[in-house]
Amino acid sequence: MSEEWLHSPTAWLQSQLPAHPLFPTLTAYEQWWEEEGKAISAAVDAHGTPWLRMFDSQGRRIDLIDYPPDYDRMLKQGYRAGHVWRVFEENSLLPFYLLGYVTSFYDPGLYCPYTVSLGTAIPLAKYGDDGLKARYLPPLLRRDEAVWQGATWMTEIKGGSDLGAAVETVARRRGDRWLLTGDKYFASNAHAELAVIAARPEGAPHNVRGLALFLAPRFRSDGELNYFIRRLKDKIGTRSVPTGEVELRDSEAYLIGRPEWGIYQILEVLNVSRVANSVASVALLQRALSDAASFARERIAFGKPIIAHPLLRQQFDTRKTQLRETFALAWEAVRLLDEVWQETPRYSDRYHLFRLVAHLAKYWTAEVAVQAAKWAMEVFAGLGVLAEFRVERWWREAMILQIWEGTPHRQILDGVEVMERKRAHELLFQHVQELASQKEIDAMRARVEAHLALPVEEKEARAEELFRDLAQFTARSLARQPVQLS
C-alpha cells in the first residue's frame, strides 16, 4: 500500500472499494476538512466541555448549549453533505458509512450526532404511523441550516448492558400520546430537537420484553421545554458531541410501532450505532498511522529518519495490515446491515449473520484502534503526551469508541449468545468458506463448538480468547478478497 494513501481517507476508500457515485462528494468533503474543518475540530477539542445555559434573564429554563462559534458550521457541513438525507434518497446505508469514515478520520466524536440523528430517523420511518412520519421525519431530512438533529437515549445510571433491569423510565398513556418520567444518564446530542427513548409502559414486565420505544420532541405542545438537561459530562474525548444527563418529567412522547417490539427496535438502533463505531475506529486507526508516519519521516535519529529503522518500519507494516483487515471486517458489517436493515421481527438468518459480524467488528476494530493510538503516541515519544501536538487526542477518542454502544464485554457475551441461540457461527463459516481454508474453518468450528458445550459460568469466563481469535480469523479471511460495496 502506498504510504501517501495513509493521509487521505477518500483515497483509502477508493483503494479498497469499487467506484461509487459518492466519491466526488467525499473528495469535496475531505477538502473542506483540510481547509477549514481541522482547525475548528482542534479548537472544539481544546475548548473542552461546552457550557450549558440553563436559565434566561427572567429565570425561565432554556437549557441551551454554547459551543465555539464555528462549531455549528462544522456540524452542519456534514448534514448538508448527506449523512442522513442520502440514506432515504438512495434507500441505502452506504452513503452514511462512507461519509462517516471521512468525518471520523478528522473527528470521531462528530460522527456521533449524525449517527444518533440517523438512529432517530430510521425507527421513525420504519415503524412510525403516517401522522408521526409526516410531522417529524421531513425536518430530520433537510439539507440546509434548518435541519433537525436526533438523539437515542437508552442508558440510565445503572448502565446500558442490562437494559431490562436498568431502565426505570416510566411511560403513562394520555390520549394519543404518552408521558415519560425518568432520567437518562448518558444522553448524547443532549440538545437534539427529537429523541427516541427507551421506557417502560405502566404495568409492563420489569425485563427487556417490557420496554418500548418512544419519540419525544424537544418542546411540548404548549411550546415549553419537554425535557431538561441537568448537566453536561466532562469527557476525555468526543468533545464535539454534547453528552449530558437528561430529566424527563411528564415529557410528551409518542409510541413508535408496537410496544411488544420495543426491545427489537432498541437493538436495531444500536446496530446502526455499533457499525458506525466500527467504521469510526478504523478511520481513527488510519489517522493515527498517518500522523505517526508524517512525524517518523521528519524525526532523525542515529543519522536517518526513524521510519527507516527496521523495528519501527516493521511496526508500521504490521499496522498497515491491521488497517486492511479491520476495514474489511467493518465494511462487511456495513454491507450486511445494508442488506437487512429494513427487516422486521422475525428476522432472517442473514440478519443473525449480520449480528455476529457486527459484534466481532465492534469488538475488534475498537481494540485495534486503542492499541494503534497508544503506539502513535510512542512514535512521538515524549511529544506524544503533550496536548499541543494533538496525537494524544486519538488515544482519548479511541478509549471512548471502545466503550461506546457496548463495552468489549457486551460484544463478547452478545456474540456468544447469537452463536448459541441462532447458530450464527455456522452462518459465518459458510459466508467465508471461499476465503479461508477448510482446515482453518474446521479448527475454528471445533473451538466454537467445544466452547458452547462448557458449563455456563466457565463458558462466560473463557469467552474472550475465543471471541478475539474468531474476530481475527474473520478479519483475515475477509481481507483476502476485494472489498465489495454491496
Compact description:
With 486 residues, the chain is of the alpha+beta class.
Description:
- This protein is α+β, with helices and mostly antiparallel strands and 486 residues long.
- The chain has 3 domains: 3-140, Butyryl-Coa Dehydrogenase, subunit A, domain 1, CATH 1.10.540; 152-259, Butyryl-CoA Dehydrogenase, subunit A, domain 2 (Beta Barrel); 263-478, Butyryl-CoA Dehydrogenase, subunit A, domain 3, CATH 1.20.140.10.
- 55% of the residues lie in helices and 14% in strands.
- It has helices at 9-16, 23-47, 71-81, 85-90, 94-106, 111-127, 130-140, 163-166, 262-298, 310-340, 349-380, 391-403, 408-422, 424-431, 438-452, 456-461, 463-478, and strands at 51-55, 61-66, 152-153, 170-174, 177-188, 194-201, 212-217, 228-232, 243-255, 300-301, 304-305.
- The mean pLDDT is 96.
